[in-house]
Amino acid sequence: MRKTVLAGIAAIAVLSAIGVAMPKWLLFTATMAASHGVVTLGIVILMRGGVVSFGQGLVFGAGGYAAALLSNHTGLQDAVVLVLAGGLAAALVAAPFAPLLARYRAIFFAMLTLALSMVLYGVLVKTQALGGSDGFNVARPTILGMELTAEGANLAMYLLSVVVVGILSIAARIYFDSTRGLVALAIRQNELRVEYLGASVRQLMAGDYVIAAFYGGVGGALTALSLGHIEPNFSYWTTSGEFVFAAILAGHHSVAAVYLASFALEMVRSFSTMYFPNTWQLALGLFLLVVIRFMPEGIGSLWWRQRPRARRVKASEPAARTVAGKAGGAA
User: Fold this and answer.
1) Is the pLDDT of residue 318 over 70?
2) How far apart are CA 153 and CA 157, in angstroms?
3) Whole-angstrom Cα distance, residue 252 to residue 60?
4) What is the tens place of the pLDDT at every residue in 109-125?
5) Any idea of the CA torsion for 315, 41, 236, 280, to the nearest 10 degrees?
6) Where are any strands of DSSP class E within the chain?
7) Hey, which residues does 251 pair with through a beta bridge?
8) Is pLDDT above 70 for 304?
9) In b/e form, how buried is each residue of 280-314, taking b as 16+ CB within 10 angstroms?
């Protein structure tokens, strides 16, 4: 765990230093990649347990709207507080559905999450108090009491995104290597065996869904504050699809790969929109097909495969042994 924390802190420091030298257009793209990447990381948490959420727009939109409404109607302007509030709001929205969704797998889980996201979209579009289909603008936030100028807002939001996303990424990596995180991999391989060994699959999947919701809400809040605008499309199915797109590109092996995939997606979309404005979705689709063809396990598999076999076995096998040990101890 110590190595994970130190590596994460080093990555935050390096990315923060790089951001100071970035041009404005790339700075904004990197901010969006970070805020969208943390939402994708939530999907990866679920993927490790063998399910994929096609409705992450639900929590993305809930977090964004929560932060925007608090900023505009309560006078609360601190971005750090608003981002945390967005994550908590998304987790609260998702919590009642977690026990239900934990009972389903495969296409049923995917379609139920998608349905929930589209319900929120319908509510937001029809509610004029929330701006209707056009949404509404979000006031420029402060960071730890410091006012942001128009010139410095982009850099400040980038630095905030890097720090917040970095902390959550460190927490995710620690979680992946923990007993609970390794049991999720065992569920992906053989759910029935995990149940026989004494672990509660539904409880773990419900917990992972709430954790993924918190990550999605944080990403939604960061995106809304960075854009200065919020709209119902935050919860639309195409938005959720983009997060799934990035999760497939990244794979479930590596946290760093999630942000590389998110950044690659943002760059491809930006240049495709610039040079192929009417067919940029085609360019994204072709990009995904190429990655799936040559890297079926995602970008993270590039360095996962290079790890010594002993380390890979150590990282992938102890889940069942841990569960068995707990079951034996309880007996």
Assistant:
1) no
2) 6
3) 20
4) 999 999 999 999 999 99
5) -90
6) 136-137, 229-230
7) none
8) no
9) beebbeebbeebeeebeebbbbeebeeeeeeeeee
Query: Terminus-to-terminus CA distance in the chain, angstroms?
Result: 30
Q: What tokens were used for 173?
A: 């990596």
Tokens of 70: 């608090």
- pLDDT of res. 306: 56
- Looking at the DSSP assignment, which residues form a beta bridge with residue 136? 230
- Greatest pairwise CA separation for the chain in angstroms: 65
Q: What b/e string do you get for 62-83 counting C-beta neighbours within 10 Å, with b at 16 or more?
A: bbbbbbbbbbeeeebbbbebbb
Residue 143 φ/ψ, nearest 5 degrees: -125, 110
Task: Please choose, from the candidates 224, 225, 226, 188, the residue with its C-alpha nearest in 3D space to the C-alpha of residue 204.
Answer: 188
Number of H helices, E strands in the chain: 16, 2
Residue type, 23: P
Q: pLDDT tens digit string along 90-106?
A: 999 999 999 999 888 88
Tokens 């609970």 correspond to 180
Cα–Cα distances in angstroms (integers) from residue 274 to residues 34, 69, 179, 194, in the given order: 21, 33, 46, 49
The count of structural domains within the chain is 1
Q: What distance in Å separates the CA atoms of residue 285 and residue 14, rounded to the nearest whole number?
A: 32
**Structural domain boundaries, residue 63:** 2-330
Predicted TM-score of the model (pTM) = 0.86
Q: What mean pLDDT comes out for the span 257-266? A: 86
Q: What is the DSSP string of 108-144?
A: HHHHHHHHHHHHHHHHHHH-GGGTGGG-EE-PPPBBT
Q: Per the structure block, which two tokens stand in for 92?
A: 């609260």
Is the separation of the CB atoms in 239 and 58 below 8 Å?
Answer: no
Average pLDDT over residues 3-13: 88
